[in-house]
């Protein structure tokens, strides 16, 4: 008890006048949770004379609940922020999870840092209510439970005597029936039978099938017992809470121990055993030695509401700590990290560590993360292969200088042969001499990929000591774990890339796809599919968006292609031809003049060969796509958009600048879509009507003239409609008048129709 810090002493270090309202109420919650009276909070609050109001603390105190999760640790934290330091601790020292505390994995509470918590007997003793609370917390009404009231004394190894259960007890009663009778009579012994008040009574905490009390009779492996006799009661109570154990019921055994009925929630006995072993291992590493016999799922615990000598067996608390096994396991794993020590900025100010070298000049550093985002057909995989080659050969990539070094390409999508051929194709088409192939490693995992949380440790183990500058993973949809729209799940997924970067010291580069719909109106950070975590997690985000090509741009590119192809042919095969002097600089930029020159100067066979090259080059140019790369960088200033052509299989820079003023396609509004649909429908109706008139006219005409009345009848419109369409009225339809005209025959006063092209008038 003397090791426990008195929170009243810590309040002397906290000035209430410096706290906001929320922090002030948290102090009150913490005091109530730790068992202090309202007077302590009220006396401390009086120090803020400007805001203190008589009676306000008492009113607020009544609204606090002990399950709100604010503990004495909140006051400890506030006091430490105000300058207080715990006893036997160096001033200014930041505790970590390493050797100073003899840290081992699983140790949450260091030796000497257990927060003792007193156990107080209930002020009013209502045994039946204790047992009812226990049963209703652990079981459902229809379930069967077991208990033992008989006992006898057994000698311990040291010669002392202890009370133990005398038999298997009762195991056929339903919870609902027992609770009903207890509420009716208020008498445990009247409902369950007499027990020896010196020995107490026992109860099983997992439901049974009513046929026995063995492990095979357990119907749900729901709970396990945590009990230790090697610590003070207050230390047991405090440590169980510090370990955040998912306790359903915490009760006092009436002896040397506290019994924690901990949620295990196992599917079967095998999983129950694994989880209990894990639970006991964590408890042991934190100083709580547990009897191994307690591993049994049909194990007995002490029954609350019973007396044991001059002590009572009672419930201390219910539903404390984590709400489930899964939540507690995740909490334990998170606490058991390998985090570095905290650092004082003042100590590092004059000797700051060097920044990581720039792997991609002005874009990405070594050991950092980069994400490339784009739609399909953007050539993202080819772009990553180009980046592999740029790093391996120490060349430029999209105009950025790359540091030369070793790179690993993790191929998750292509079969092995296709992947290897792609690398050679990019080398050949780009005209790059393969001088540093030894710098490129490829890990082909198509059909063998696993989720990223499983892949990361395998990757780290294989890549250790290979001194990679970059690890490129293509594509990530093959290894995504969880829902890509969940920020929480995607944050855990992206953390795997951090592990790769940290363990290998290499940059991690990966690609992802755009969300559905037009992207032109979105910011680059909002185009990636799924959670925004994708865009905000990496140190560098490069987004590729397609640029629509106008007829003028395509014509301009075809012109350049023809000029380039002709010049390449003349250079390679017509060295005796003085084309460089015959054609001016302006002529060399005009496809018509260059082609005409070739037709005049080359013989038939040369011209046929050139024509075949031109046909292939123009066809290739017509399949070009244009892309704009925008970036969001954490370490560097934003760069101007980079415009590039994708000419299978490589990307080339837009050297002419013709893409500079092209705007990406934007999303068409719903109203505009409706207008466009109406226009399209009207145009189709007009075309159909013209076709119908043409057909009717052809079947009825004689010498290029047909009765408008007959035509109208055949196409299903009124004669006045024909007159309105082809006449001179305000509502005449010009698109029809281009083909026909109407006239009235004075002899029979009928309206006739004739083709304009066929008449001489």
Question: β content, as a range?
Answer: 15-25%
Q: Counting H and I runs of at least 4 residues, what is the number of helices?
A: 25
Low-confidence stretches: 88-104, 517-522, 524-529
Helix content: 25-40%
Radius of gyration: 42 Å
Q: The biggest beta sheet, please?
A: 9 strands, mixed
Description:
The chain has 761 residues and is α+β, with helices and mostly antiparallel strands. It folds into five domains: 7-94; 127-335, DNA primase, PRIM domain (Alpha-Beta Complex); 358-547, P-loop containing nucleotide triphosphate hydrolases (Rossmann fold), CATH 3.40.50; 551-623; 670-755, no CATH class. Helix 23 crosses helix 24. The longest helix is centred in the last third of the chain and has 31 residues, at 670-700. The chain is elongated.
Structural features:
single chain; about 750 residues; alpha+beta; DNA primase, PRIM domain; Rossmann fold; 5 domains; 9-stranded mixed sheet; 5-stranded antiparallel sheet; 25 helices; about 35% helix; elongated
Chart the SSEs and their pairings.
Layout (H helix, E strand, L loop, with lengths): L6 H5 L9 H13 L4 H8 L10 H6 L10 H10 L45 H12 L5 E5 L2 E5 L5 E5 L4 E5 H11 L2 H5 L9 E3 L18 E4 L6 H10 L4 E6 L5 E6 L5 H17 L14 E3 L3 E3 L2 E10 L4 H11 L9 H4 L9 E3 L3 E2 L3 E6 L5 H14 L2 E2 L2 E2 L4 E6 L4 H15 L9 E5 L7 H12 L4 E7 L12 H18 L2 E7 L19 H4 L3 E8 L3 H23 L5 H4 L8 H11 L2 H19 L2 E9 L8 E6 L2 E4 L16 H31 L4 E3 H8 L3 H8 L7 H4 L2 E6 L4 E6 L6
Parallel strand pairs: 14-20, 14-21, 17-18, 17-19, 19-20
Antiparallel strand pairs: 1-4, 1-5, 2-3, 5-9, 6-8, 7-8, 7-11, 10-11, 12-13, 15-16, 21-22, 22-23, 23-24, 25-27, 26-27
Helix pairs in contact: 2-3, 2-5, 6-7, 13-14, 15-16, 18-20, 18-21, 22-23, 23-24
């Amino acid at each position: 008890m003397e090791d426990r810090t008195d929170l009243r002493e810590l309040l002397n270090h906290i000035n209430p006048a410096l706290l906001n309202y929320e922090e002030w109420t948290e102090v009150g919650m913490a005091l109530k949770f730790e068992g202090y009276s309202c007077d302590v909070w009220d006396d401390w609050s009086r120090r803020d004379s400007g805001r203190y109001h008589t009676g306000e603390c008492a009113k607020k105190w009544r609204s606090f609940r002990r399950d709100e999760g604010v503990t004495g640790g909140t006051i400890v934290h506030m006091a430490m922020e105000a300058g207080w330091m715990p006893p036997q601790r160096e001033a200014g020292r930041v505790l970590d999870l390493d050797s100073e505390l003899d840290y081992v994995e699983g140790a949450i509470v260091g030796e000497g840092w257990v927060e003792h918590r007193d156990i107080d007997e209930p002020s009013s003793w209502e045994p039946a209510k204790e047992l009812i609370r226990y049963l209703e917390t652990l079981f459902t009404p229809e379930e069967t439970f077991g208990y033992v009231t008989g006992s006898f004394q057994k000698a311990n190894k040291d010669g002392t005597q202890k009370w133990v259960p005398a038999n298997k007890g009762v195991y056929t009663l339903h919870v609902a029936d027992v609770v009903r009778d207890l509420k009716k009579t208020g008498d445990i012994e009247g409902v369950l039978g007499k027990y020896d008040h010196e020995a107490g009574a026992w109860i099983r905490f997992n439901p049974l099938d009513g046929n026995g009390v063995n492990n095979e009779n357990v119907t749900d492996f729901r709970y396990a017992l945590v009990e230790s006799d090697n610590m003070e009661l207050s230390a047991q109570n405090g440590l169980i809470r510090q370990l955040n154990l998912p306790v359903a019921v915490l009760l006092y055994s009436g002896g040397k121990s506290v019994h924690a009925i901990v949620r295990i929630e196992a599917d079967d006995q095998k999983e129950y055993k694994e989880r209990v072993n894990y639970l006991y291992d964590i408890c042991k590493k934190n100083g709580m030695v547990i009897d191994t016999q307690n591993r049994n799922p049909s194990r007995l615990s002490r029954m609350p509401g019973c007396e044991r000598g001059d002590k009572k067996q009672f419930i201390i608390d219910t539903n404390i700590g984590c709400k489930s096994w899964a939540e507690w396991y995740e909490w334990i794993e998170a606490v058991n990290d390998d985090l570095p020590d905290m650092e004082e900025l003042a100590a590092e100010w004059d000797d700051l560590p060097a920044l990581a070298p720039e792997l991609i000049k002005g874009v990405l550093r070594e050991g950092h993360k980069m994400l490339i985002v784009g739609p399909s057909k953007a050539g993202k995989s080819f772009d990553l292969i180009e980046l592999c080659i740029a790093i391996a050969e120490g060349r430029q990539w999209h105009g950025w200088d790359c540091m030369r070094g070793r790179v690993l390409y993790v191929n998750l999508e292509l079969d092995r042969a296709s992947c290897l051929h792609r690398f050679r194709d990019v080398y050949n088409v780009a005209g790059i001499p393969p001088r540093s192939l030894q710098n490129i490693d490829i890990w082909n995992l198509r059909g063998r990929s696993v989720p990223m949380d499983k892949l990361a440790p395998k990757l780290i183990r294989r890549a250790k000591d290979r001194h990679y500058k970059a690890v490129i993973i293509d594509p990530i949809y093959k290894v995504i774990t969880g829902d890509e729209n969940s920020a929480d799940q995607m944050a855990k997924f992206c953390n795997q890339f951090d592990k790769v970067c940290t363990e290998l010291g290499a940059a991690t580069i990966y690609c992802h796809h755009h969300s559905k719909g037009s992207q032109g109106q979105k910011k680059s950070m909002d185009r990636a599919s799924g959670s925004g975590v994708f865009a905000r997690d990496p140190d560098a985000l490069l987004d590729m968006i397609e640029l629509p090509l106008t007829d003028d741009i395509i014509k301009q590119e075809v012109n350049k292609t023809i000029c380039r192809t002709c010049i390449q042919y003349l250079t390679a095969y017509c060295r005796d031809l003085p084309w460089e002097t015959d054609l001016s600089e302006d002529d060399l930029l005009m496809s018509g003049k260059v082609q005409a020159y070739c037709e005049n100067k080359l013989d038939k066979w040369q011209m046929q060969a050139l024509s075949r090259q031109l046909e292939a080059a123009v066809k290739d140019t017509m399949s070009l796509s244009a892309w704009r790369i925008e970036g969001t960088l954490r370490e560097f200033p934003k760069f101007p958009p980079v415009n590039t052509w994708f000419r299978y299989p490589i990307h080339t820079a837009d050297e002419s600048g013709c893409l500079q003023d092209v705007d990406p396609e934007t999303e068409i509004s719903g109203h505009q879509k409706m207008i466009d649909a109406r226009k399209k429908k009207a145009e189709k109706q007009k075309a159909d009507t013209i076709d119908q008139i043409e057909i009717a006219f052809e079947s009825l005409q004689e010498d290029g003239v047909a009765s408008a009345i007959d035509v109208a009848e055949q196409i299903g419109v009124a004669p006045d409609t024909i007159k309105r369409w082809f006449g001179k009225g305000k509502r005449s339809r010009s698109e029809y008048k281009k083909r026909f005209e109407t006239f009235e025959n004075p002899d029979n006063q009928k309206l006739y129709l004739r083709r304009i092209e066929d008449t001489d008038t």
